[in-house]
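Example for tutorial group B:
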């Protein structure tokens, strides 16, 4: 009867709690106080600590406003104790923070764990645990804990939305790039005080950069930063060399990516969903603000030529290749300045004519101009404006007026644009200032295109085999299946490759992989693409290819590998296909079927190719 009175009293308190939870002032530390008082009143439990499960951690419930929940426990460290209901080990796991506790209660319902109560036990509690009402108490605790957690999550979501709105207002309140960068640094300090942070900005910065801000270096930059910059997505990284866990978010506008925000913490760490959302929003919002500020500044510097520049660079900022960009740029320059001849030159070991160059500059007669301009830009990056070139040269020349403007990438002269005309004093000084503005902005676009193409090549290719990376193959096949009528996917696996590594060493194993990849590339040619699937597995996709023809290609590849590799190896292959008869096949199931066929080939004696059939599904599941 006494236990029933206790349970009835607790139910009354729980009912009061349901009412309190929905009041505006009620929060986690209100719940903690309420729970602590209830447990002491009914059972004389002391030193109560409540840890709830959130994002793969046991997170300590706040005691008061100044408690910043500093005590978290990685869930995988104690998950076994929870599953086994091992109270002793659970208590031991938190005694480093709470040495006074000696008992725990796992708050769960039908296997779902909501949290853990740690406390100093009492005789009254030990007695109640043996009663028939204990299970009912557990259920009441579970429901109240689940409700308060949901309520807190909703309020946290509202707080986050308000923070994001303030960020938006802050960044769009100015058109000054330096102010935006300073505001971004302040927001990082405010929103992520527990992390180290760094801004890595694209190489178009015209201002002195403050502390914790650097210019993007595609050669030496960390892989996660590069991936985030190229892909435009959040990227996690465990930087083991320095014992860091980092999270990278692109600073992204509507027209491009302007840098990367990187936050990091020492040791292995699990970033929360709120961290990810705030950082992603911060990157998007600041990126759009930076983009707006840059465009605003450009418009003020080139007011008189705004219409022409907008027309030109709207297209240049599109996703063009280097060839397409140079071709477009030369057409716009010819249209605006009407030169007699035009040259776009890149300076490497020698002067190289690029797309957009007119025929005259491919002739020997143009050497006098190219050598003079090339020698000038080998000494300085200052543009050149010559009203009458004949006064500088003793030779008879066809073109008197010239303008030459350097293409500067990362503070070095990468090349130049040269305009010439027969008439002396043909180009005005205004034209000279305008061509400088155009080429300066074009240099940024060209730099970004070169950087993007170099980075994209690095990302899309496997470093060892030079075949495409798996993620590129995934995307290629998915797009092909959307527009093509049929296709064949082949998955190769080098037989007994571990023995090659064990016997001849990993260096020789790498050489074998390179040789096998070379054979695949040569045999596939323009018919499809080859990729490294993972480890010693390589893949081929043949778009719009019939199964019979694909089998012949696979046979040639297998035969050459078996006869040309040193040491000699063989390959097993799994083949899957799709066409109008197999419209149900998706690109994921295409990969899965090839893998099942490969598994069958391996189990059937190796050194063979197998085409997927239904019976292989059984083999795959064994």
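The residue assignment follows.
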């Amino acid at each position: 009867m006494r236990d029933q009175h206790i349970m009835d009293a607790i139910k009354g308190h729980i009912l009061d709690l349901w009412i309190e939870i929905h009041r505006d002032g009620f929060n986690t530390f209100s719940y903690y106080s309420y729970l602590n008082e209830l447990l002491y009143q009914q059972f004389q439990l002391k030193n109560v600590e409540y840890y709830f499960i959130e994002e793969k951690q046991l997170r300590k419930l706040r005691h008061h406003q100044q408690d910043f929940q500093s005590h978290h426990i990685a869930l995988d460290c104690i998950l076994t104790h929870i599953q086994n209901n091992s109270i002793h080990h659970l208590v031991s796991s938190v005694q480093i923070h709470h040495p006074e506790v000696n008992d725990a209660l796992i708050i769960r319902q039908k296997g779902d764990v909501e949290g853990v109560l740690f406390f100093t036990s009492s005789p009254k509690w030990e007695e109640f645990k043996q009663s028939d009402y204990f299970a009912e108490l557990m259920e009441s605790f579970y429901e109240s804990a689940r409700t308060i957690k949901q309520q807190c999550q909703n309020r946290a979501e509202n707080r986050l939305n308000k923070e994001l709105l303030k960020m938006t207002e802050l960044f769009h309140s100015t058109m000054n790039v330096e102010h935006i960068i300073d505001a971004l640094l302040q927001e990082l300090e405010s929103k992520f005080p527990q992390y180290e942070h760094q801004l890595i900005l694209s190489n178009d910065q015209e201002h002195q950069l403050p502390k914790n801000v650097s210019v993007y270096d595609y050669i030496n930059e960390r892989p996660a930063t590069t991936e985030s910059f190229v892909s435009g997505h959040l990227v996690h990284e465990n930087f083991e060399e320095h014992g860091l866990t980092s999270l990278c978010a692109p600073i992204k506008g509507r027209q491009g990516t302007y840098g990367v925000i990187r936050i990091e913490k020492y040791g292995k760490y699990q970033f929360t969903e709120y961290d990810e959302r705030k950082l992603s929003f911060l990157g998007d919002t600041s990126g759009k603000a930076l983009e707006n500020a840059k465009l605003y500044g450009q418009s003020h510097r080139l007011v008189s030529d705004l219409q022409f520049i907008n027309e030109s660079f709207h297209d240049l900022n599109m996703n063009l290749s280097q060839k397409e960009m140079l071709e477009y740029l030369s057409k716009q320059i010819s249209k605006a300045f009407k030169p007699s001849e035009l040259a776009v030159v890149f300076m490497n070991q020698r002067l190289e004519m690029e797309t957009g160059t007119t025929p005259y500059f491919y002739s020997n007669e143009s050497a006098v101009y190219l050598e003079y301009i090339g020698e000038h830009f080998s000494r300085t990056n200052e543009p050149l404006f010559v009203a009458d070139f004949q006064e500088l040269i003793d030779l008879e020349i066809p073109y008197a007026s010239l303008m030459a403007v350097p293409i500067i990438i990362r503070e070095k002269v990468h090349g130049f644009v040269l305009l010439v005309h027969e008439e002396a004093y043909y180009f005005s000084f205004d034209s000279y200032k305008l061509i400088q503005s155009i080429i300066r902005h074009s240099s940024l676009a060209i730099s970004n295109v070169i950087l993007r193409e170099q980075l994209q090549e690095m990302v899309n290719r496997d470093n060892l085999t030079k075949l495409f990376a798996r993620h590129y193959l995934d995307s290629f096949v998915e797009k092909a299946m959307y527009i093509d009528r049929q296709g064949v996917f082949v998955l190769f696996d080098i037989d007994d490759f571990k023995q090659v590594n064990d016997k001849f060493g990993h260096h020789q194993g790498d050489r074998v992989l390179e040789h096998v990849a070379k054979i695949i590339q040569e045999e596939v040619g323009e018919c499809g693409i080859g990729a490294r699937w993972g480890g010693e597995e390589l893949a081929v996709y043949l778009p719009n290819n019939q199964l019979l023809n694909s089998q012949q290609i696979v046979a040639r590849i297998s035969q050459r590998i078996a006869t040309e590799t040193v040491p000699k190896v063989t390959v097993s292959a799994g083949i899957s296909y799709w066409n109008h008869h197999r419209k149900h096949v998706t690109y994921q199931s295409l990969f899965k079927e090839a893998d099942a066929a490969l598994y069958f080939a391996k189990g059937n004696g190796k050194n063979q190719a197998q085409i997927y059939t239904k019976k292989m599904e059984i083999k795959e599941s064994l």
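The longest helix spans residues 134-171. Compare this with the pattern of hydrophobic and polar residues in the output above.
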